[in-house]
Every structure is written in structure tokens, then in C-alpha cells.
Description:
Radius of gyration: 24 Å
Number of helices: 12
Strand content: 25-35%
Helix content: 10-25%
Structural class: alpha+beta
Largest sheet: 7 strands, antiparallel
Number of domains: 2
Number of strands: 16
Order of helices and strands: EEHHEEEEEEHEEEHEEHHHHEHHEEHH
Shape: globular
Amino acid sequence: xxxxxxxxxxxxxxxxxxxxxxxxxxxxxxxxxxxxxxxxxxxxxxxxxxxxxxxxxxxxxxxxxxxxxxxxxxxxxxxxxxxxxxxxxxxxxxxxxxxxxxxxxxxxxxxxxxxxxxxxxxxxxxxxxxxxxxxxxxxxxxxxxxxxxxxxxxxxxxxxxxxxxxxxxxxxxxxxxxxxxxxxxxxxxxxxxxxxxxxxxxxxxxxxxxxxxxxxxxxxxxxxxxxxxxxxxxxxxxxxxxxxxxxxxxxxxxxxxxxxxxxxxxxxxxxxxxxxxxxxxxxxxxxxxxxxxxxxxxxxxxxxxxxxxxxxxxxxxxxxxxxxxxxxxxxxxxxxxxxxxxxxxxxxxxxxxxxxxxxxxxxxxxxxxxxxxxxxxxxxxxxxxxxxxxxxxxxxxxxxxxxxxxxxxxxxxxxxxxxxxxxxxxxxxxxxxxxxxxxxxxxxxxxxxxxxxxxxxxxxxxxxxxxxxxxxxxxxxxxxxxxxxxxxxxxxxxxxxxxxxxxxxx
Length: 506
């Protein structure tokens, strides 16, 4: 029977033909045709796909493993970052509000907002180079491009500046330009009252096999095991704060449970002048939203994905009727012949909309899609990738650690793992391609640009009165210039016509 749900919001008539919670839980099995570019919340909606700087890829919230009295929150952006994308490397969007929102009383409204706003700075705008020589410090004159940020904490009408003019870690250009990149990356960790913050590129910590979206790759789940995000980077914002700083009334003992989601806001009017300059004005509007993994990815139909990104958790009750008897387990049964769990699916409601009772459900909770964390549960000395399903209550869906295998967990939950239906579904990718770090911000370093051997073999020299340096970032620009000149020569053909075209190009 077709499941159609109708609801009104802000004068719109919207028809949702899918289950919010069940669609999330299905993970990579939710697609019925080839899908080549989706992962967690990577490129999940039309607007964010066209505007990757405001595309939130993943959200993490966990009790810090090396400081159990603090909580670490990580929000990742810009999916599928290549490591060699110079000379204009990936950056946060200037002027956009990147927020991590915290609900500490269960009413589905933000009680605390941590907000990062970025700006660009060039030391020498007359060169195309990202850096003009080897870089050993974030303040080096040779680091031509830097991003700076302001971090504010918002509590109701009160706003406090935590960091002013912080510096974003630079892109990992390569060994010639940044011989000790780890040092540069660590220099971007800033201290705040009782905690730390970081902004910059990192290895994409999410891991899964995207081929499982395509049912043509073996309907028995045998053709799995390739980490499709191996080698890609993201841009991360991270903050570590005392647990008491985010608990209701500052009391983490009485009020240990918090809900977390991340959003991005752009000004409503974007203007490009005839001279190519860009500016923006108008009110800020929410254009991206992410809490639990895979929600907008596999649940919301294309026509409503941007709408979901603009919606607020306080309005998520509109999806509740689609959860208790979801369609997607029936689709799994049709393809994989797995039994359909009995309805109503209150287990999915608790996991994705209210929190699990006696684990991470707040008192008087209002159903809403958030990543909920019980901060009273200490970090595990031996974390299990399956989290709560493996009796490791410090892991997903109680918050989300970097090592949690959310794809496998959600596959098993949708097939009734929390109601006694044991299964071992998975995508064959059980861990990240590189090891995480043991201290804040815990993420792995971003993958580098050209390999050292390539840099040594092909360098671009920039000469001025201070001498000559090998500059790795010049390689991409030089290659592009040569390609442009070659194209012009080919287009010009023999004779004077070709000369005229070359002069025009020059």
C-alpha cells in the first residue's frame, strides 16, 4: 500500500512519501538505482551540491577520550575535496555563518550556538601563488593566502566572542611548500576558556562503500569492502568545551543529555558585479542542516531536499507519522528477502527522533532529528565500531565518535536489531583509511598535494630580490597556463589568424 503523508508548514502543501527515521536507518541500501556521489550528507541536496562550501558532510559529538569532563563537537564541510586542487585550494565561504547548535533541555530549540564566520586575506594579490616559498608558520610572509575567523558563543540574546582573528590551517600543498605540515596544522588549534577550537582541512573521517547504493553490484551484499572516500579531504570546524558549559543550568550531573545539529546560513542576496566582484546582503537564511547521519541523503525526495535543509528541528513532528510503519523495510525484503520487522516501529522513533529511553532521551522531549549525547557516559577504553549494538554505550547512536561505523549500525537497526532481530548486515568497510589522532581535534591530517618526488622533479621558481624558491603551488598554475597556450595555438591554426589569436590570449 502506498504511504503518503500530508502536512502544512508556512503555507506550503507538502507530500512526503518516505519515512524519515526508516529512510535514515536503511543507510546505503535505500537506493534502488545507481548512485555515484552520495555519502553520509555529502552532496545530499540540489542547492548544496551546487554550493559545496555550505554542504555539511558529517557531524560528530562525543565525550573527549582524553578528557572525560569535556565534550568534543566536530562539523565537517565541503565533500570530496581533492588534495591537489591548487592554486585556488578549498576554503570556507567568507561571510557564511557556520553554526553548531545545542539543545540542552529537549525542546528542539537551540539553547547554545557556536558560530564561526570566515574572511579571506591575501598578502600579495598580484600573484596567483598560494604561497611564495616554504612555509613554517601560519604568520610566514611566504603564506600568501590565509583564512581568518571569529568564533562567538550565543546564548539567547547574549553573545560572547571566544576567538577573534583565528587562523585556519592552510591546505596541505606538498612537501616542498610545507615541509612540516603537521606543525602548521597544530598551530591552528586555538585555546578558549576551558577548551579548544580548530578550523581547517582534514582527512574525511567518514567511511563506507558507495557501491552498495547500486543494487547491480551483487544483491547478496558480497561485492563490498572498498572505502569510496579514501584519499578525500573535508574542511572541519571543531570545538572542545567543558561538559558543564553546555549542560542545562551548567549542571552536567542533573542534565547530562544534549542534542546537537549543525547549520549554515547565507545572506539572502548574492551579487556579482560586472567587474567580477562578489558581495552579499539581506537577512541570513539557513541553507544547510545536519544532525543524524544519512537523513537528507536517502529520505527526502529531490523536490524537498532544499526545504529540509532550511527547516528547524522544532517542526520535525511533521515526519512522525511516517516512522511507525515505514516503507523501506518492505523494499529491502523485496530485494534481499530479509523479514520485515513488526510494526509499529517505536524503536526507530526513539533512535532518530526522541533518543533511546534510559540512554540519551531527555525528559519531556519534543520529537526532532538531532544527534543526542548522554555526557554522563564515560568514554570507552576499547571503543567498538558498532557502539550501542555491541554494548558500547559511549558510541552511536549515543552521540557519534569518529570510529563509529554508522552505516553498519543503521543497516542493522532498520532490520530490527534493537527489537531482537539479530543480523550482521554491513558494507564491508569497518574503519577509516588512515588512523585518527589521540588528541584534539582527533581528526587525521589532510592528504597532501603533489607527492614529494613529483615536487622535486617539477618545481616552479619565483625570483625576486630575495632569491629563488621552489614553489609547489605554482605547478598547477603553470600547467594550466601551458594548456591554455596550447589550446590557443591549436585553435589559431596556420598563418596570421593563429598569430592574432595568440596575441589576444597574451
